[in-house]
From TrEMBL:
<dbReference type="InterPro" id="IPR036188">
    <property type="entry name" value="FAD/NAD-bd_sf"/>
</dbReference>
<dbReference type="InterPro" id="IPR004099">
    <property type="entry name" value="Pyr_nucl-diS_OxRdtase_dimer"/>
</dbReference>
<feature type="domain" description="FAD/NAD(P)-binding">
    <location>
        <begin position="8"/>
        <end position="318"/>
    </location>
</feature>
<dbReference type="InterPro" id="IPR016156">
    <property type="entry name" value="FAD/NAD-linked_Rdtase_dimer_sf"/>
</dbReference>
<keyword id="KW-0285">Flavoprotein</keyword>
<keyword id="KW-0274">FAD</keyword>
<dbReference type="InterPro" id="IPR023753">
    <property type="entry name" value="FAD/NAD-binding_dom"/>
</dbReference>
<feature type="domain" description="Pyridine nucleotide-disulphide oxidoreductase dimerisation">
    <location>
        <begin position="338"/>
        <end position="443"/>
    </location>
</feature>
<dbReference type="InterPro" id="IPR001100">
    <property type="entry name" value="Pyr_nuc-diS_OxRdtase"/>
</dbReference>
<dbReference type="Pfam" id="PF07992">
    <property type="entry name" value="Pyr_redox_2"/>
</dbReference>
<protein>
    <submittedName>
        <fullName>Glutathione reductase</fullName>
    </submittedName>
</protein>
<comment type="similarity">
    <text>Belongs to the class-I pyridine nucleotide-disulfide oxidoreductase family.</text>
</comment>
<dbReference type="Pfam" id="PF02852">
    <property type="entry name" value="Pyr_redox_dim"/>
</dbReference>
Length: 447
């Protein structure tokens, strides 16, 4: 081992939700912990992901709710003041990085600023420092993917969108996943003319297509244009913007073009080969203990090729699990149910078994669609899309999966998460009382 190396029990690479949670839990065990970050402390979620997105979303959701009540007695002429909204977002995000770093240091974690790269299986380099450790935790996250086409340098990302000084008059969003649907809702309500360009006809493929079609219909109603089956081949800069082109004469002139075509794990410049760690384009390959192919090196969060959605609560769960493993536990990871929400207008949420999975065993699983637009919860708000889909296991009689589309879908999915996770039967649900009339009290009619 290099004599100049600074020694630790564990070195954590990346200070996002995964890395900070792991470092904190490991420090609480009394370990000597180093945490390395090359960019913003706190990582994607609070700086350029979930939280800034939700701040912008809060304003556009309020505007949409007011619009829906326009025929129901609420007079409103609301518009989004983007510069002020952005100032509000920046006021929130500006202190995050330094506060997170300070918080880590206050907890007794040794922090390093710079790019971490393995030199050997036991050593890594950060700037002028060499760090040696018994164990390492890779928590380097993901970055926005792009398209390998002429003019790719003109493509912007979700990071750019979430920090726009002005909302452009026209934008093109390439992609049909979480990011594209969330940014479309924000941009259209902030006054932009939005075109979503999809390379196939299956947006949000992991969600029930009936609910996705409801979301698409709602976004179209708000003014979003959808172009399907169009693989963009080139982006050119013009005198006053950009021209997006594709096969069969497709051409769209716009002010900005955002690629929302998935994210790539930050694993390619980590010296993983020197460390004996194998990886794929899904991230670091891990076993059921989140150990990489080098058994003393773990991977968690977005950087790990673990078979779960890449979300902040999952990153935290994996971090606490690995800390417990390094503290002496030796059980395989068992994930709880993972709720996911697309914060579009309206919201689309899902948990547990999906419709696609249920359809592989129709003898056992029944898909139940519930249209709720006329229920008091939704009617009073003028909501146009309020649907729930439940997956029933006919063997146990339990609900094992659910998806929701409405402005209340974020709350509803969390209630369903508790009930499905605790394996509540219909009979048990009828024994519970929720204050009425609320989103929760509808559960009685759903089960
Ligand atoms: C636009 C957007 C919206 C999102 N919204 C939601 C949401 O609503 N809900 C939700 O649950 N999830 C959401 N996510 C996903 C969520 O942000 C991620 O799942 C979460 O941040 C993953 O945490 P992580 O710690 O694994 O990775 P990250 O947060 O990406 O942190 C990794 C850190 O490692 C650092 N790093 C990388 N390489 C190195 C290196 N070699 N040396 C040192 N440091 C390095 C990076 O700079 C980064 O700070 C969203 C993501 C995006 C992009
Ligand atoms: N609310 C949330 O929880 C939330 C919000 C945003 C992001 N995220 C996380 O970030 C991840 C990334 O989000 P995302 O929307 O970038 O990815 P995604 O995987 O959800 O969607 C990518 C989309 O891009 C399309 N695509 C792929 N290659 C393409 C190509 N060459 N040309 C055109 N389209 C192409 C896909 O068909 C898909 O529709 C999510 O999977 C999720 O883990 C979560």
């Amino acid at each position: 081992m290099n004599q100049l190396a600074e020694e630790f029990d564990v070195v954590v690479l990346g200070a996002g939700p995964a890395g900070t949670a792991a470092a904190t839990a490991l420090k609480q065990q009394g370990k000597r912990v180093a945490l390395v970050e090359e960019d913003l402390w706190g990582g994607t979620c609070p700086n350029r992901g979930c939280d800034p997105k939700k701040i912008l979303y809060t304003a556009v959701e309020a505007k949409r709710r007011a619009e829906l009540l326009a025929q129901r007695g609420l007079k409103s002429d609301i518009s989004v003041d983007w510069p002020t909204l952005m100032a509000n977002k920046r006021e929130y995000t500006a202190p995050i990085s330094s506060a997170t770093k300070q918080g880590m240091e206050k907890a007794g974690i040794t922090t390093y600023v710079g790019h971490a790269k393995f030199l050997t299986t036991k050593n890594l380099q950060v700037g002028d420092h060499q760090l040696a450790a018994t164990n390492f935790v890779i928590a380097t996250g993901q970055r926005p993917g792009t398209l390998d086409i002429p003019g790719q340098e003109f493509l912007q990302t979700s990071t750019d969108f979430l920090d726009l000084d002005e909302m452009p008059a026209k934008i093109v969003l390439i992609g049909g996943g979480y990011v594209a649907f969330e940014l479309a809702g924000i941009a259209v309500q902030a006054g932009a003319q939005v075109t979503m360009v999809l390379h196939n006809a299956h947006p949000l493929r992991a969600f029930p297509q009936q609910l996705v079609q409801g979301l698409v219909a709602e976004l179209k109603d708000q003014g979003v244009e959808f172009v399907e089956n169009q693989a963009v081949t080139e982006v050119q800069q013009t005198a006053d913007g950009f021209q997006v082109t594709g096969p069969n004469g497709f051409s769209q002139v716009t002010d900005r073009v955002f690629a929302a075509v998935g994210r790539q794990p930050n694993v390619d410049n980590l010296g993983l080969t020197q460390a004996g760690v194998e990886y794929s384009n899904q991230g670091v390959i891990v076993d059921r203990h989140l150990r990489s192919t080098a058994a003393h090196i773990y991977a968690i969060g977005d950087a790990a090729a673990s078979p779960v959605p890449k979300l902040t609560p999952v990153a935290g769960f994996e971090a606490r699990y690995v800390a417990a493993q390094l503290g002496g536990r030796d059980d395989e990871i068992r994930y709880p149910l993972v709720p996911t929400i697309v914060f579009s207008l309206p919201k689309l949420a899902q948990i547990g078994m999906t419709e696609n999975q249920a359809q592989r065993n129709v003898a056992r699983y029944q898909v139940k669609e519930v249209e709720m637009t006329n229920w008091i919860t939704y009617k009073r708000q003028g909501e146009k899309q309020a649907q729930v889909q439940l997956i029933l296991d006919q063997m146990s009689g339990l609900v094992v999966g659910a998806a929701c589309l409405s402005l209340e879908a974020d709350e509803m999915i969390n209630y369903l998460s508790s009930l499905i996770g605790a394996e509540y039967s219909s009979k048990q649900v009828q024994q519970l009382l929720w204050a009425y009339p609320t989103t929760a009290s509808d559960l009685q009619y759903l089960y």
